[in-house]
Amino acid sequence: MSKTLELIKPEDLTMCESTAQMITKARVDGVELFFDRASAMKPCPIGEQSACCKHCAMGPCRMNVNSPYDKVGVCGATIDTIVARNFGRMVAAGTA
Question: HEC string of 43-86?
């Protein structure tokens, strides 16, 4: 379990008292939770900036955000198209 997250009080992770109690119990029992895995996971620097495309079977295509117009995806999509597609899918899925 991540030592960094153990310092965070369960009440700081959730407003729900029942959930805070379950987080405390899980930590006492040594159960790894989503919060623990998420804090230990280093985000992909390319995906974090929405510069990767996984929309077809030819990818994933990864664009370089430092020189975004030097290459296009296999389908010909520029970084602008890829970012717009990613944003559109997040909005449609309700995660944006």
Answer: CCHHHHCCCEECCCCCCCEECCCCCCCCCCCCCCCCHHHHHHHH
